[in-house]
Design goal:
The chain has a single domain, classed as YaeB-like fold. 39% of the residues lie in helices and 27% in strands. The protein has two helices and four strands. It is globular and about 40 Å long. It starts with a strand and ends in a 10-residue tail after the last strand.
Amino acid sequence: MIVRYSRRAQGNIGAIYNYLDEQAPAATRKVKDLIERRIMSLSYFPLMAPKTDSPGARGLSLTRYPYKIYSEIEGEEAWILDIRDARRQPRDGRN
């Protein structure tokens, strides 16, 4: 399965990485690696993320870190809709 990123997801992942680089440079690589591994796992197991309240959307939490990856399956593509800090406001469902 091909993994694609929405514009929102691209912007948010960049913002998360920039924040981590500024705030916790020593931990940044570990968090980035985990985010990337979890996204890659969606290419093999796209239904592993539980369904959310948004129609068609699934949410995958990261172990030990407050980030959540929102995805949607369309045919042979897994779309990463959003990547958010779960401690902040919930996702509004818009792409």
